[in-house]
Design a protein that fits this description.
alpha/beta, Rossmann fold, 2 domains, 7-stranded mixed beta sheet, 5-stranded mixed beta sheet, 12 strands, about 45% helix
């Protein structure tokens, strides 16, 4: 990662400002949409297993709810900041709008490291977060979901606390729950599959088949694992993946020129997506520095980890062979890197389109929970494919018609939909 100062919120605002200028958006709409409607910051006291009391910092940012209740994950991360949450909440607003689901954008987080916490301590953080936010979240207000280093168990603890406080069942309060406890089939696959649904459509427009392409993937968590799964099922080959080593506080890339064996890698991967290096070597993988995933001689790059991973300092390392970047992560490419990518005519499926499968399926889960009727997995994934495919073609059509970069076209569609909703409500 670059050593230069990086602020994701400043980046999100800069992206918005550029789109707002091109749309000739009125000043009131610009002032309203370039910052959150509401922010919550709070402390969460937790009695640790060693008898001490530790105070964790929590956040929830509700960027805009003109199109419907807020929607967005809660991430646990030691480097979480309020500006990261602000940026992510704004991106969630555009993400929901670009796939045209009736939700707004929110995001939450806690500054903590689950690697060093016991399950009981994690549960106390989850319940403490809900106690602070119980009056300002809910099925028709703001609906949380899992994000980085949170999972279905965390969501169930949060749901239980929410229902205890309010004294009634409300499974639609939160998504990403375990299947059988109000969760939706297909939710685990949704974000990764959504990336590949859009990638598939982009390749069709290029006259290519997935089977004719090779990819390199950053990250080996839930998003990347399922993206690799579907991409391989369509015939594509992945030769490199990267992951973060908590023990060594750095990342590594794992390369096998003949193509990775997903199932074999999953057997040597922990719940945080960290691959065992010794076991990987025994399976014939070459262990490379963390940034090596970006430098591979492949057709497609899929950044599926964190923000600011393709930036001005490393964008020049991208192979001349690369024709497409499908952004599985939120905000992985900085505006500085975007300019270089544009000049090289690399096709980009922007983050808030490519990874919108997660929030789309979260919306499906919310609908199912609220009506207490659940769909079969096949139906969920078919609905997801339909939504993602339609959203991709809407953005691609506008990009072609107005000769726009895909990211710009996606922003135009999303921002215009949200701004119109604000006008229709009489806010601006």
């Amino acid at each position: 990662m670059t050593e230069k100062s990086y602020n994701p919120y400043a980046m999100a605002q800069a992206q918005f400002d550029k789109a707002a200028e091109a749309l000739d958006l009125d000043q009131a709409s610009r002032d309203l949409l370039r910052q959150p409607l509401r922010e919550y910051q709070f402390s969460i006291p937790v009695h640790m297993d060693d008898g001490s009391v530790k105070i964790f910092r929590g956040f929830r940012v509700q960027h805009n709810d003109a199109r419907g209740p807020g929607k967005g994950g809660i991430r646990f991360h030691p480097q979480e900041t309020i500006d990261t949450v602000r940026a992510l909440s704004m991106w969630m607003t555009w993400k929901c709008a670009v796939v045209d689901i009736p939700l707004g954008g929110s995001k939450g987080g806690v500054v903590c490291d689950p690697h060093s916490l016991t399950p009981r301590e994690e549960q106390q953080i989850c319940r403490g977060w809900v106690r602070q936010m119980a009056r300002n979240v809910g099925p028709d207000i703001d609906v949380p979901a899992p994000d980085v280093m949170t999972n279905a168990q965390h969501m169930l603890w949060m749901l239980d606390e929410f229902e205890t406080i309010h004294g009634h069942k409300g499974p639609g309060f939160i998504t990403g729950k375990p299947v059988g406890m109000g969760g939706s089939l297909g939710r685990a696959e949704a974000t990764g599959y959504g990336v590949i649904y859009t990638l598939r459509e982009a390749l069709k427009e290029m006259g290519k088949l997935p089977a004719d392409t090779v990819a390199s993937v950053q990250g080996f968590g839930n998003v990347s694992q399922h993206a690799i799964r579907l991409y391989q099922e369509l015939g594509g080959k992945v030769i490199c993946v990267s992951c973060w080593s908590q023990k060594e506080h750095t990342s590594y890339s794992f390369k096998k020129s003949t193509g990775i064996d997903l199932d074999a890698l999953l057997k040597i991967t922990d719940r945080f997506g960290e691959i065992d290096q010794t076991a990987a070597k025994n399976l014939g993988y070459e262990i490379l520095p963390g940034d090596a995933w970006l430098e591979q001689d492949v057709d497609i790059l899929i950044p599926g980890a964190l923000e600011n991973q393709i930036n001005g300092e490393n964008v020049g390392h991208i192979s001349r062979r690369v024709i497409m970047i499908a952004e599985g992560a939120n905000g992985p490419t900085t505006p500085e890197a975007d300019q270089v990518i544009k000049q090289r005519n690399i096709f980009v499926i922007p983050d808030f389109l490519a990874n919108a499968g997660g929030v789309t399926c979260s919306y499906f889960e919310q609908v199912q929970s609220n009506m207490n009727y659940y769909w079969e997995k096949k139906e969920v994934l078919e609905r997801l494919d339909h939504k993602m495919t339609a959203a991709f073609h809407a953005v691609s059509e506008l990009a072609g018609k107005r000769k726009l970069f895909m990211r710009d076209a996606a922003y135009y569609i999303a921002i215009n939909r949200v701004a119109q909703a604000c006008k229709d409500r009489g806010w601006t």
